[in-house]
Each structure stands twice: as C-alpha cells, then as structure tokens.
Design a protein that fits this description.
This protein is of the alpha/beta class. 34% of the residues lie in helices and 23% in strands. Strands 2-3-1-4-5-6 form a six-stranded mixed beta sheet, with helices on both faces. It has a three-stranded mixed beta sheet with strand order 7-8-9.
Length: 299
C-alpha cells in the first residue's frame, strides 16, 4: 500500500539590507512579477507576499523592505515592518550582496537574526557578478562567521543559479498543513496596490537621484468603462517638494507622459484589458516625516 505524501505549507520571509536582490529573488521563485525592481535602494516599501505552488507544497514568500539606518519616520516604519515579518514564520532567507561585499549593515542584521528560533537560510546573492570562485568562497566564509545558519549557499536571483535548490531547502522546513491560498493565486496584493507600485517603479526608473525616494503613488479610482473592454485608472504621484513636481511632470508634460506610457503597457498585461491611465502630480511636503501622510500613502 503506497504512502500518501503529506502536503506542506508555510511562510518564508526574505530579509537583507537595501538592494541585495530580495524582490528579484521573490519574483524569480514565484515565476512572475510580484514586487517592483529598480536599481535604486529601498524600492520595496511594503511586506509583499508571493505564492509559490509546487508538488506537495505551497510556500508563501514575504518580500520585505531593506533593513537600514533610518533617517525618517518612513524609514523607522519600514524597519519595524521587517522586524514584524520575522514573527510567526517558518523559515527566514537572509540575503547578502556578494558582488558589493559584506559590510556592517549585513553584520547588524545578522545580529538581529541571531536570537531567532526560526531556521535561517543564509545566501550570498549575485554570484554571477563575482569575478572568481575564490572570491565566492571568501564571501561564503564571511557569511558563515556572522551566525549559526541552518544552510549557507551561493545563488543568483537574476540568472536563477541555485534558486531551485534554495526553494527545496525552504520546502523541507515547511510544516504539514493545507495551502493558505487557492491554486492560481500568486500574491495577496490588491489590484490597486499592484497598479500603484507599477507606476512608482516607472517613475523611479526615469527620474534623477533627488526624486525617487520622495515618490509615493496612490490609486484614487479604478473602474471599468461601461460597454468597453477598458479600465479607467486615476492615480496621484506625490512628491515632497515643488522642484520634484516639476521634474516628474517634465517639459511640456513629457516625463509624466513617458511614465504613463511605460506603466500602461504593464498594467494592461496585469489586468488583461485596455487601460486609460490618468496621472496627476501633487506635493505633500516632507510626507516621509509625517505619520499621518505616511499612512495616507499606504505605508
């Protein structure tokens, strides 16, 4: 008589300092875009869940903001979000950037993970960008010295190197239990949040250094247009200073049009219908330092 395989399900939080590749890894594991990705640090501002379904298991991955030294109320709130995401999960994936090198920020976060009873899988990411095997070995050794990890492995979230192995290590540590999400669900984010994040990603990609971290996007309304396969989206891009507003709009509105054009294509693929996208830019002075405004922005 054959033995019935037990189903495993649970939560895995992905943590690391800014720009180590957490969102890229979550997107790779889920197999589609769950979290926006840019070259700018601290792109992720919410604890975003992506669902991975495999034979006999479901892993819910929690992508978190980069843990950093906060300079604003928003920064403090993001760090607290990371701390909360470590509670009640079944496994933690700790990522460091092997190409940039392991530094004090990684060491501080490692010290925060040291007291956890939760299994921690420590990964040196971006090994495809490390020039030699010797340097990869040195990065793995440096990571080993920072804590008592359940596993240590080199990965590349960008190319997929060792990502399947990492997923299997996560799967092994999930408890037996039914799935948390029905088959076909790949994230718990509402459509409005997904759309807002796509718009913010395009704004961050296209604007200069003084703008990206000041941008927040609020989708005011999403409604189907009667009698047409068309969704109307009304969204506001908030910045902290009037000068930033001018940069986002651009000469003759060109920058805002380009942001809208790039975002629209991705939103249409997400929603499966044509989209009429109306973008406006408003100033909310020093919103990153105001708890009320931060909450209004959805953080």
């Amino acid at each position: 008589m054959s033995q019935v395989q037990e189903f495993r399900s649970g939560f895995a939080t992905v943590v690391g300092r800014p720009n180590v590749g957490k969102s890229t890894l979550v997107n790779r594991l889920v197999g589609r875009k769950v979290a926006i990705v840019t070259e700018k640090p601290q792109t992720t501002r919410n604890a975003i869940r992506g669902v991975v379904n495999g034979p006999g298991f479901q892993a819910v991955l929690v992508d978190t903001p980069g843990f950093h030294k906060p300079r604003t109320v928003l920064g403090e709130r993001l760090n607290e979000m990371v701390r909360r995401s470590l509670e009640g999960v079944d496994v933690v994936v700790f990522l460091v950037d092997g190409a940039e090198g392991i530094g004090r920020g990684d060491e501080f976060l490692a010290s925060q993970l040291a007291h956890l009873k939760t299994p921690v899988l420590a990964c040196v990411n971006k090994v495809d960008l490390i020039p030699s095997r010797q340097m990869v070995a040195e990065a793995l050794l440096a990571l080993e010295r920072m804590g008592e990890w359940d596993e240590i492995l080199p990965i590349s979230a960008r190319t997929g190197y060792n990502v399947d192995l990492l997923l299997d290590l996560v799967r092994q540590r999930l408890p037996e239990g039914p799935p948390y999400f029905p088959e076909g669900v790949w994230t718990d984010q509402p459509e409005k949040q997904l759309v807002a994040e796509i718009i913010r990603e395009k704004a961050m990609e296209l604007t200069r250094e003084e703008v990206p971290h000041s941008v927040a996007v609020v989708v005011e309304e999403m409604r189907p247009r009667e009698g047409r396969d068309l969704v109307e989206v009304e969204a506001i891009l908030y910045v902290e200073r009037e000068s930033q507003k001018g940069i986002l709009i651009g000469k003759g509105g060109r920058m805002l049009k380009e942001i809208g054009s790039r975002a629209r294509a991705e939103i249409e693929a997400l929603l499966g219908s044509q989209v009429f996208l109306n973008l406006r830019v408003k100033t909310a002075r020093e919103w990153q330092r105001s708890p009320d405004l931060i909450s209004r922005m959805g953080y």
